[in-house]
Design goal:
Blueprint: H1 5-11, H2 15-18, E1 27-30, H3 39-45, E2 53-57, H4 65-68, E3 74-78, H5 83-90, E4 95-96, H6 104-109, E5 118-123, E6 131-133, H7 141-147, E7 150-155, E8 169-171, E9 177-180, H8 196-206, E10 214-217, H9 221-231, E11 239-241, E12 244-245, H10 247-254, E13 270-272, E14 274-275, H11 279-285, E15 291-293, H12 296-299, H13 302-305, E16 311-316, E17 319-321, E18 326-327, E19 330-331, E20 334-335, H14 342-351, E21 356-360, E22 364-367, E23 370-373, E24 375-376, E25 394-397, E26 400-403, H15 409-417, H16 422-434
Length: 445
Amino acid sequence: MSKYLNEYKSKLRTADEAVKAVKSGDWVAYSHFACTPKVLDEALAKRRELINVNIRATCAVHPVKVAAVQNNNFIYNSGFFSAFDRQLHDNNSCFHVPGLYSEAPINIRQDNAPSPVVAMVITTPMDRGGYFNLSAANSYVKEKCNKATTVIVEINEKAPRCLGGNHENLHISEVDYIVEGNNEPLPEIPGHAATEVDKTIARLITEEIEDGACIQLGIGGLPNIIGGMIAESDLKNLGVHSEMMNDAFVTLYEAGKITGANKSIDRYKMVYTFALGSASLYEFIHDNPCCASYPVDYTNSPQIISQNEKQIAINNALEVDLFGQVSSESFGSRQISGTGGQVDFTVGAFHSRGGKAFICLNSTKKLDGKIVSRIAPQISPGSTVTTPRSMVHYIVTEYGKANLKGKPTWMRAEMIINLAHPDYREDLIKAAEKMKIWVKTNKRV
């Protein structure tokens, strides 16, 4: 570190000094998820003289201060909504950036996305080679920094150092300003207790997984619960190629289920692009050579994903219609999350030799005090179709699973209605008849 100490000192600034780099009309890129900057965000929010500064973030898991500023000072944009982002969206203070997660880096490189003028990112302290590690959010942060005119790092001594992979570090020569942060532990995301419905869905999926399979778990409570149940199974020699590293993978590893020995690429490595979960998860990934942090255009590339045999993709949905269309990110016009990597892994897992892509959901939900079916005749008006019917492989509810690939509309309708709660099936059949996707040979389920 002594070789770079003078350069470090010359670039060291307070947060208030560093954010002076931002000018009215600039686009500012924040790092992602648990690594959303806090000290720099608070300092930037104080600059009320700025006008129309656009912030681009992804799934901030703590309140973003610039978004709370009213008037036209800041416009906050998120590529995947967290609970905080949803609240801001409800107050017209957060806007969604649609897109496939895997394509974010190329959108930046090809100037499809607005180029950031300033990048503000959480990192670990500088190592003796002059590198700052991007910690639990590799994603497409390096691409943002490559495009930015000014790069500011916010050092957090509690951030885990995540080994790569590639694009997991910034060299001091690529950094303009250094801010020593508050060193708070990364935000934790609480787990969810498994319901009997969750356990049933998990069992149905676990039955489809073979020894040596390579696992992806999407964001949300149900994929985590499924991971925990896999840990209780007899499966062995599993691998990991996932966009997200979560606590379920730690449970699987500690249960001896994960070795990575059967992976076709990155053997013995647990591959991911971001980590989100508990303090135990962050401790697990810190300096752990069995984990490999990669940028999202590697982890989520369908071509890369498909190279691992028996790739299993497990993701959530909010609603499925009788054509097999999947909505996973919005209720009507209310944005809930984002496309994320669901499409990427659905395509990649299907094209993997022996691979399977599961989209799972409870058959019902509570809405305005009433129980309603998540299996609908058509996607609710205004809701986003996340995964088109042509790409869907398996749909799973507590009532079963259906492989929709290669099936005509009348057959799909029957299979999907079989996944609905029995109380709603007769109405769904009537809807299918009106939609001309029901034939006389269909079973009255």
